[in-house]
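Q: Sequence in, structure out?
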Amino acid sequence: METVLSLGRRVRLLRDHFGLRQDEFGARAGISGNRVSEIENDKGGTTASVLMSLCREFPVNPEWVLSGRGMMLKGDPESALPAVDFSVRINVLERQMRRVLEAETHREPGEAIARVPLYIGAVPAGTPDMAAGEIEEYLDMPASWVRGKKNIYALKVNGDSMIDIGIMHGDTLLVEAREKAKHGQVVIASINGEVTVKTLSISGGGAVSLIPENPAYRPIAITPDMDFRILGIVLAALRHYG
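A: Exactly. Output:
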């Protein structure tokens, strides 16, 4: 009988084959190293877009990614897979994964979708005001992503200071509007009116700094003379492949 590896085991096998750390592998797929760990341990954390990204970034057979059957890599001389155009395989994978995700998030009518405001440009200082006229559009998100929270908004990423945890330039961030955050959380913050996304660091002595997830940038130490505010906690980074 053929043994089919779990999705997590397949992802781990692919990562090990290319000799990448979880953070390196996650950067290629557009997710954080922590999410890679969750996927490899079969604790969820994956979506159709993540699997499609793996198929684009690595010479891997989409059928193997989705079902575990066939050979892992394209072009393997022992592969029993038929010669099918890669774009066709991606389309099949996308349709199959969409059905899986729709089944997982199915709820009663009116409960499956949450409308989230996407703000134009950078979020202004202070918690976004939905009446301020700075909303570009409303995004339809699975209600499970919002987790029942009411104060959710979205904004675009401008820059590459967070690429090591899979937040890329042009991504859309799903944010919970909050004025307080914990050490290690990724936050939207305002420093003297300038908005940024960084990882919040709070030392044992109470010193606060904002940490970029890119060695090309330096941490920002928060001093008492700064107008510093937390605008929200990042829940997810979304990416569109067009």
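Strands lie at 113-119, 135-142, 152-156, 172-176, 186-191, 194-202, 208-211, 220-221, 228-238.
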